[in-house]
Amino acid sequence: MHVETLNFATSQGAGTAYVARPLTETTAAVILIHEWWGINDHIRDIAGRYAKEGYLCVMPDLYRDRVAKDAAEAEALMQALQIADGIETIKKAVDETSGTYQVKKFAITGYCMGGTFALRAACEIPGFLAASPFYGDIPEESGRAKLKTPTLFTAGAKDKWINAEKIAKLKEAAQEYDLPVEVVVYEADHAFFNDTRPEVYNAEAAADAWQRVLSLFRKNLA
Prior knowledge:
The protein is an alpha/beta fold.
């Protein structure tokens, strides 16, 4: 695996993305959106897992080099991030990835805040062939009604933020608008995929979710 930095411009200034590149040639990329902590070691590790599966993994830095030291700072960074800025950063990263690496097939995934942006990007940015948001917030009805990307939405039943009411809204939208969404809910808490947080990590749920995501990506990025 090679680790690189991708540089691009946005209307809010310079942007970068962390890139994990597999050792073999690939025609498919996974856009990975970080949690509210920023690009830390855990999210880099996930990028590496995708590279080992043969995907170019590109992680746009929505915080522009800032990483939270604690939950209070993470919340402040997340609240300061404008939705339009995050979506533009993702779009510019996709465009730069396509030009730099000659990759045309894209999927998107993300965790926590990253799941929120991953789902919204799948609704708003054309061209994604698959999406796998983990316990992210649900876009407003006008946004989620536009979803055309095959999507696996993963959540935890013990999650007090992405709760049963929010999940129900996504399921209702999927039925009303015939959206290509599968919702999987585990008996787990928010951030159950994060193996650096033993208080919420659920190894069984995380392993099953990982295999489901890989299956979705293999099917749609082949």
